[in-house]
Amino acid sequence: MLAPYRRLCLHRILVAGPLGLPEDERAVLLCANHTSWWDGFLLREVHRRQGAGRPLYTVMLASQRRRFPWFRWMGALGLEPGRPASLRRVFRFLYQERRRRPYWLAFFPQGRIRPSFARPLDFRPGVRLMVRAIHPGWVIPTAIHLEPLRHPAPTAFVVMGAPIDTARDPSPEALEAATTLLLDRLQEWLSRVGEHAAEKWEEFLAEHTAQYQIRT
């Protein structure tokens, strides 16, 4: 529905990862920083490329879901900040859905839009409920950054790290640290290559894969 408009607002979407995601029947949580209105659509593009036909749900502000009704048709789940009952309702739906079938879930633990260079990222504790809702599953730390480069519309960069088993019950602090590391690496690389980032993207992919191989 929004593809033509997105093409006007975003020049290109460049994706790195996920690294080493097992091909199993587990659910997947994309745990990402929140830097623009387009972030949900960027993760939807990741899901389109990698999701293997599984449904995608995205947790978003209930006010935005009411304002744009078509978000409901795209699997958006409304959350009202400061209302524990709202968080429990989303958790209950995701937990019950997980018993029925595996799915992908997009979640932004910051709970608000912030520049991708802001530190700390300030992940909220609610992400732990999302981790437990999809268990057994995989959590993929995901970094999102938009850069204008040489075009009127920005290029979107989406970098995914190594999957984390929900059995480890990763803390908000651990997920924030993993996402921060991805952002720092991406932004350091962008500072080196500058306006040629799109043309040199294969170079970043090679570096990103090499980092994963070193860690494993």
TrEMBL record:
Top-level taxon of the source organism: Bacteria
InterPro entries (alphabetical): Plipid/glycerol_acylTrfase
Transferase keyword on record: yes
Alphabetical list of Pfam families matching this protein: Acyltransferase
Domain Phospholipid/glycerol acyltransferase: 28-147
Listed SMART domains: PlsC
SUPFAM superfamilies, per database record: Glycerol-3-phosphate (1)-acyltransferase
Recorded coiled-coil stretches: none
Keywords: Acyltransferase, Transferase
Gene Ontology MF terms in the entry: acyltransferase activity
Name the UniProt record assigns to this protein: Phospholipid/glycerol acyltransferase
